[in-house]
Specification:
The structure is a single chain. The protein has helices at residues 21-29, 49-56, 70-73, 85-94, 97-100, 109-112, 250-257, 261-275, 281-286, 288-300, 306-320, 357-368, 385-388, and strands at residues 10-11, 35-38, 60-65, 79-84, 102-108, 128-138, 143-148, 152-159, 161-167, 187-188, 210-215, 218-222, 227-232, 236-244. The strands form 2 sheets. Strands 2-12-8-14-6-5-3-4 form an 8-stranded antiparallel beta sheet, with helices on both faces. Strands 1-11-9-13-7-10 form a 6-stranded mixed beta sheet, with no helix packed on it. Helix 10 packs across helix 11. It is an alpha+beta fold and 404 residues long. The longest helix is centred in the middle third of the chain and has 15 residues, at 261-275. The protein is 28% helix and 21% strand. 45% of the residues are buried.
Length: 404
Amino acid sequence: LRNPAMDGLRDVPRVATVPTQADFVRDYMRPAQPAVFPIPPCGALAWTLDSLRERVGETEVISRINTASEDYRMGKAYNIARMHLADYIDNLQANNAKARNSYLAVQNLKLQFPTLVPEMPIPDIIGKIHGGPYMWIAPKGHYEYCHIDADDGLLLILNGQKRVRIFPAHHIDGMYPHPMGSLGRTIQSQVNVDTPDLEQHPRFANVEGWDVTLNSGDMLYIPALYWHQVTSTEQTISVNVFFGPAGENLFLEHMLTGTQRESFIYWLLNIVEQNRSFARFPRIVADLRRSLRSFFLKQFHEVPTPGQMDQLVAIVRQHLGIPLDTPEPVPTTKHAPPLLVRGLRWRGPDRWKHPDERKARATAAAVEGHGDDDIDEEKAPACSATECGPVDDDIDDADVDLGD
């Protein structure tokens, strides 16, 4: 796993056959071990740019633009544009300036391309889906910012090639995450892993990790909250799925007791800080137990055990400076005020300008996945893309947000 200046990263293990779900949980998910498996035979392995244009080219999609900018590479900002899939593919095949500065990311297969869904079966090793499957179509040379996703992820390369660098969750200090309170569901690193500046980020020199090149037919497992940076070394069609183990609270158990605990706490408190400036926040704090229960049910389809909930409440209270022995108020409303992921999608001073904006943003978020949680009765303050902080992403090519 050694780093020295990124030239010493180890290979990700390749496994010749896909394990059973039980073996996968035991050998890869619980020890948080990245691995490459073969994609089981499916119709999606025959997808090409030409076949997708012919079959679903008239579908309207949302593409990220300005993706060649340094702000995008560092996970600070991006814009979006609506277009037909055929137009995006035409630009890609022409290798024009538009293609080199855009990325078709996180397209929800079930919503955008329902006729393709039967050709992309969910791999049997997945216990419970958190989000996806999502399609990603990348130009050659696309660099996706280094980030963490809160879910376990599978990245499936259907056609093309990608290079992925992966760093363990416990190296969060050496990855220099964006400041707590940054917007979005993912957390981005401030380190450019292609050309790390060790004077600016000296702790990165001690970060261990893996380096792998994925080709058509490869399926990469990225453990939850593991840092990953994805570069498309060829034009690439990929799909990803966010998931966790089957069960009501096994994912939370893993996050609270495994090596990802520190990063999981940072991720949770980042969302707490996203909500601090909103008028609803005191009510969330007062009804914290129920607000957290609703939050984890929505994000991971998990119901914390009483013991897990005690831990989660204590983590948030300690962060907010609330003595742990402070009595919890008795709820007075039927529903708890929601703790929301803020700033998932469109940004800028005109974000609330048009009457149909909320509906449009909700549609865009559903297409990209995980939902635009900050659409509610509270209108977020206007801000520029830079002021609003990092984009969500990744779901990235975890690309699916895994952001890849």
